[in-house]
Amino acid sequence: MTAAASKCRVCKGPAVIDLPRHNAKFCAEHLQQLCRRQMAKAIDDFDMLSPADRILVAVSGGKDSLAVWDMLIEAGYQADGLYIGLGIGEYSTDSGGYVQRFADERGLHLITIDLRDDYGFDVPTAARATKRVPCSACGLSKRRLFDKAALDGGYDVLVTGHNLDDEAAVLFGNTLRWDIEYLARQLPVLPAGNGFPKKVKPLVRLTEREMAAWCLVRGIDYVVEECPIAAGNRHLSYKESLNAVEAKSPGAKASFYLGFLERMAPLLAGMSAAATGELNDCDRCGSPTTGDVCAFCRLVEKSSAHEPVPVEMLLTRGGKVRR
Amino acid sequence: MKVLLRNPRREIEVEGGHSVDRLLDDLGLSREAHLVIRNGTLVPGDARLDDGDTVEVRPVISGGAA
């Protein structure tokens, strides 16, 4: 026997979630209404998408990317999915399965790229071969392949599932280092040009707790387990720190990030390399780069020549990542 | 009651009769970083958890810096 819990602010029905930053609780229906409105406001405020756009959504099998794909389709946009197999052992196998089932169940078009099959390496091998931390090798590969797939496929815009927590954590890290180059391009919309597709982040007004709740109330299965080689990375520690602040001051994350966009980003406009036109074409692939050969081509060269490294080799006996 | 935890996936037995918020506090888990599912349904922080319930505490923080 379970006692009745609190009520939805909108309809007074049974609440499923409390959102301290809104000082309210919501039922499943009105949680979805809140999420739809927040995404629509982000799209409108930052001129992210037009109804006729052909959209490519980068999907990982996690809650955020599947949620944004679901929300865009529900809102009537034309959106295909792009999944990149990263070769991170069972984690990648499971993630790919969630994405494929999501697409199949809804009759959506999914493009799949496999790093090992298509480029001759995987993320654990790239990390070892280039001596990069795994998340760095992974991020570099994903960003380049997202851009290439969007341009090759003739898509108008590339969508990623970055949410408020992601953006606030990146902003926190960039601010701790006063990294003006990164701060200047930490925007929810990056325009097409200089060899890049237009890239947008429609979930920047929504937290990852709200996105996980969206998936639960919508019946979306996603990979809950954390990437085994992301565990303990600096980005996650920034999120934990910001959540400690949020617990004391609900709304702090939104104020930090959305305040940056409103009041600080305009002052930094034009200060990134892409904005100042300091980019060349990569000698090998033609992609934009600040040097002669782009970082991705250098990574492919080293990684594809390296003996494959199983993900377990990056982990200590205690399951932690060797960094 | 049975409580499923993730990352790593494991199950623990916890005495019922308390709220969701109390469970998270007792486990030392951030309310901002978790959702609680009682008998298959998402529930808010003041929902009561009883001995017969099956509970999942689901972390929501994810991702590398990519």
Largest sheet of chain B: 5 strands, mixed
Q: Shape of chain A, please?
A: globular
CATH architecture of chain B: Roll
Show unreliable segments of chain B.
none
Distance between the termini of chain A: 48 Å
* CATH fold-level label of chain B: Ubiquitin-like (UB roll)
Number of DSSP-assigned strands of chain B: 7
The tally of helices of chain B reads 1
Strand order of the largest sheet of chain B: 2-1-7-4-5
Query: What is the CATH topology descriptor of chain A?
Result: Rossmann fold
Query: How confident overall, as mean pLDDT of chain B?
Result: 92
Please report the distance between the alpha carbons of the first and last residues of chain B: 38 Å
How many helix segments of chain A? Answer: 13
In CATH terms, what is the architecture of chain A? 3-Layer(aba) Sandwich
CATH class of chain A, named: Alpha Beta
Which ranges of chain A are low-confidence, i.e. pLDDT below 50, for 5 or more consecutive residues?
A: none
Number of domains of chain A: 1
Quick one: which chains have the greatest interface?
A-B, 52 and 34 residues
Structural class of chain A: alpha/beta
Structure description:
The complex is a heterodimer of chains A (323) and B (66). Chain A is an alpha/beta fold and 323 residues long. Chain A has 13 helices and ten strands. Chain A has a single domain (45-314), classed as Rossmann fold (3-Layer(aba) Sandwich). In chain A, strand 4, helix 3 (89-106) and strand 5 form a beta-alpha-beta unit. Chain A is globular. The N and C termini of chain A lie far apart (48 Å). The model of chain A has no long low-confidence stretch (mean pLDDT 93). Chain B is globular, with a radius of gyration of 12 Å. Chain B has a single domain, classed as Ubiquitin-like (UB roll), CATH 3.10.20.30. The A-B interface holds A 1-3, 5-6, 15-18, 20, 25, 28, 62-64, 134-136, 138-139, 142-143, 165-166, 169-170, 173, 207-209, 211-213, 216-217, 224-227, 230-231, 233-236, 239-240, 243-244, 246-247, 319 and B 6-9, 30-35, 37-39, 41-50, 52-53, 58-66.
